[in-house]
Hints:
Elements: H1 19-35, E1 39-40, E2 46-48, H2 49-57, H3 61-66, E3 69-71, E4 77-80, H4 85-94, E5 104-113, E6 125-134, H5 139-155, E7 163-168, H6 172-186, H7 195-203, H8 214-220, H9 232-247, E8 253-254, E9 266-273, E10 282-288, H10 292-295, E11 303-309, H11 310-319, E12 332-336, H12 339-353, E13 359-361, H13 368-377, E14 382-386, H14 388-393, E15 395-400, E16 406-410, H15 415-425
Parallel strand pairs: 1-5, 7-8, 12-13, 12-14
Antiparallel strand pairs: 2-4, 3-4, 5-6, 6-11, 7-9, 9-10, 10-11, 14-15, 15-16
Amino acid sequence: MALITKRVYGAEDVLPKDSYKWQFLEKLMREEAQSFGFKEIRTPVFEHTELFRRGVGDTTDVVQKEMYTFDTKGGTSITLRPEGTAGAARALLEHALYNDGLPVKAYYFVSCYRYEKKQANRYREFHQFGLEAYGTASPAADAEMICAAQSIFDRLDIGERLTLELNSIGCPDCRAKYYEALKKYFEGYKDKLCDTCLSRLERNPMRILDCKSPICSEIAKDAPVVLDYICDDCREHFESVKRLLDSSGVKYKINPRIVRGLDYYTRTVFEFVTDELGAQGTVCGGGRYDGLIEELGGQHMPSLGFALGMERLLALLGAAEKTIPDFDKCGLYIATMGDKAQEKAFELVKQVRSYSVRAETDIVGRSLRAQMKYADKIGAEYSMVLGDDEIERNKAEIKNMTTGKKSEISLDKDFGEGFIRVKIENEDNPGACFFTKEK
Length: 439
C-alpha cells in the first residue's frame, strides 16, 4: 500500500511509544513553574504578522528569513508563531492582566515554526517551555528566572552537563555608544560581510554578532565587547544579579558574546549550553526585555523570561543516558477465558482505573496464550488470569511480571483497593526515577 503523503519536511511525529517522555517532562516543568508562582497561559498558534515584526525585530534572522507568513482569504497577513514571548505579551496587553497585580508570572508550552535548514535537534516545527514575568525591573527577578531554569535541570539530574553563560547587553541609552563602536569596527569589513549583515550595519549592528555565516562569525570574534560600554546603572544591575546567583549557589560564567537572536532583549541575557549536542548546544535561553511592552503599544513595563527547547532537552537526556520513567505502563492486565470472565474483567478493570492506574483486558478476542504475550509486550507490571474457577471461588492470583511473585486477591467490590495494596507491598522502589527532587 502506497501512502498518499508523508509528514512535512522538518516536522516530526511523537509516537505513542515515546509520548510518555514528553508527558513526564511537562508534568515536572508544571510543578517547578508552579512552585515559583507561575500560572499557565495559552495563546494562538498564529498572530498578526506585525506582532512579530515589532516584537521580535525586523532585523533578526527570524523575521527576515524564517517566519511562516501568509495572507488570509480576507487579505490579513498572518504568521505562525516563531517564538512564545510576543504572543504572551500581546495577551497581557489585550486582556489587561496587569490589573490583577504585578508581577504577572506566566508559563507556557508552545509549538513554534521557523523555516530553516533542518539539522540535528533543530526542526521547522519545534516545541518550547517558557516562563514570562511582566512588571518588575528588579535584578532579583532576573536571578529568580535563572534559578527556575536551573531547578528544572537539577531535578532532571543534568545540571552538571549544562553551563550557564551570562551577559549584559545594557539599556538603549548605553547601547547607543556600543552601536557606534560596532559600526566603526564592522565598516572596515564591509567588503566581506554578507548582504544581510550589510543591511544591519546601519539599523542594528549588534545583530551581526549573531550571524551564522562563517565569514561574519570570524570577523565578529574581534569586535568590541558590550560589557565595556554599559552604563553604571546597567553594571550595578548586572552585579546584583551575579550576587544573587552566588547566594543561591548557581554557577555561571560570563560570556560577553551572548546577544540572543531577538531584538527585544535588554540588560541581562543568558543561555544554558552543552557540548553534548554538537552545534545545537543551546538548550535554554532568555533574559530581560524591558522595552517590549512599549513596543507593542503598552505603558513601560520591564519584563523578562526564558524559553527551553523540548527536543533539545530530550536529546540531552538521551545523551546523558537518563531513563525517563514510564508511569504510563499498564499496571494490571486481566486475561480472560469465556464470556462470564470477560464481564467480570470489565467490572474489575473499572475499579482499578478509579485509582488512576492503567488497567487493560482483552478487547480483540485473543486466545489465553496470545493474551499473555500481549501483556508482556505492553510491559504490564501485573497480570491476572480470570476463568470460571476464579469466578466461582471469588479469588484469583495476581502475578508480578518482573519477579514472578504471585499474590492471591479477592474479587469483591474492594478489588481495586486490594490490587493497589498488593502493588505497593511488592514494589521494591516505589516511584523510582532519576529526578532528584521529591514532589
